[in-house]
Amino acid sequence: MNASQPEQPAQPESLSPADIVLDVQRATSLSSLPGDQDLVRWAAAAVGAHRAEAEISLRIVDEEESQALNSQYRGKHKPTNVLSFPADIPEELGLPLLGDLVICAQVVAREAEQQHKALSAHWAHMVVHGTLHLLGYDHIEDDEAEIMENLETRILAGLGFSDPYQPVEDTTFEPARTARADNTINGTDE
pTM for the full model? Predict the structure, then answer.
């Protein structure tokens, strides 16, 4: 664990939706998106015992915007599922702003289909995953990845979702209508 990564809480507790402000911007052509209530619930579960309150901006985008941001900030010239931009505010100011998340709707839909996961479960995973990045968690090193993945799995289980890192057999899965098979991306943070 690096010095900037927060200590892992023993049992993350969920904040009530009133403890988190989530500014949702929908800049996508897809219409099948989670509602604000679910997005807030998932982000609040990830914030859990880390903070008493939090503010996050969540922008849901199409592949073109995701690719442009991924190229500009990560040097990767393809769309990705989630990008996290932590706020750079001194802790002593005590401001609740965590940062910004950008989630690509088409990539999330395509990954859910490829991984045989319910679309809502994959959306929940991306919101939790991105929010944990805003809190300082990372998965570059193996030990960091294990801590973050275990925490994600516990948070998602508390929300009623299966382990996101295990293949899911879901016979009720409905593939996203706009998913394209010619541009596959697996996992998170591709």
Answer: 0.80
